[in-house]
Amino acid sequence: MSENERNAESAAEKARREDSTESVENKKYRAWLRGIVSALIVFTSLYLLQRLLVPKYVDDVVEGAFIAEYYGEEKDFDVIFIGDCEVYENFSPAVLWEQYGINSYIRGSAQQYIWQSYYLLEDTLRYETPEVVVFNVLSLQYDKAQREAYNRMTLEGMEWSPAKVKSILASMSEEEHFLDYVFPILRYHTRWSGLSGTDLEYMFGTKPVSHNGYYMRVDVKAARDVPKGRILADYGFGEKPLEYLDRMRELCAKKGIELVLIKAPSLYPYWYPEWEEQVEAYASAHELRYVNFLELQEETGIDYSTDTYDGGLHMNLSGAEKLSVYFGRILSGEMGVPDRRGETELSLSWEEKLAAYEAEKQEQYRYYGMKQ
Question: What's the structural domain count of the chain?
Answer without folding.
Answer: 1
